[in-house]
Amino acid sequence: MQSDTVSGVKEEERIAAQFLKNRFGVDPTFEPLGQYKPPDFAIGATAFEVRRLNQHYFGEDGEAEALEELYYRLKPAIEGTLDKVPYSEGKGSYFWLLSFARPIKIEFRDVVQDLTRQARAHYDTGNQETKSFESQAVRLELRPASASCEKAFRYGSDFDLDGGGCFGDIYPTNIRLTLKEKIGKTAEIASKFERWVLVLVDYIMLPGMLEPGDVGPLNLELGHFNGVAILGQDSKLAIESPEHFLEHCVHG
Fold first, then answer.
1. CA–CA separation, 228 vs 215, rounded Å?
2. CA-CA distance, 129 to 251, in Å (whole number)?
3. Where are the domains of the chain?
4. Which of 71, 73, 94, 140 is 20 to 30 A from 64, comparing alpha carbons?
5. Residue (of 54, 53, 52) closest to 67 by Cα position
6. Within its chain, how far is the Cα of 13 from the centroid?
7. Is residue 82 a contact partner of residue 139, using CB atoms and an 8 Å limit?
8. What is the reported pTM?
9. Does residue 200 sit in helix, strand or coil?
């Protein structure tokens, strides 16, 4: 991967770069038009724009929000607060399990403070019993550990209640949403390259589980893009739309 900023490459870009090198036999040029400017990669006259393929939540106003936006705020905030609770050998350790949904209609920090305050109060009682607390659509469950973890609270698991659904619906909806976003983002520079490819790295399905038959009709409005390639996190091609378009996107 040719770049002066390799250290700033995102995980999905690293995965895409490996795929492109394997597929076309050359290292793609990273950020050919400049740092932080699209496209992410280029091989000759072909531009490759990369993005994670994630599931989205649609609010009452129709606005889309990537599911990870709440997760990446909520989990670290709760974990950071719980980690500050002093450990007591007499009170032992708890595993904490997080589940959540949207929308959250009060200040985000108030939800975190409310849940962690209740967790701290329960820990201070010294009662070794399972306990659950809720604030808005966020639920924090504490389960006593059978052996000491040498800290008051240790992460156990998390579950996004807005995730999941029928794969045949999830993929077309989120692919079309991402494609529309990328068409708008690159419209002004579309003429700088002869061909455009959207490379999506799948973070919806577990690696290796996505099959073309799992996905319903995509019916994509490609705009100036020639096609969409969906990769697994193992850098292998899972879905190509239109079929076989990659055969001509660099040398054709």
1. 14
2. 64
3. 6-55+166-247, 58-160
4. 140
5. 54
6. 13
7. no
8. 0.66
9. strand
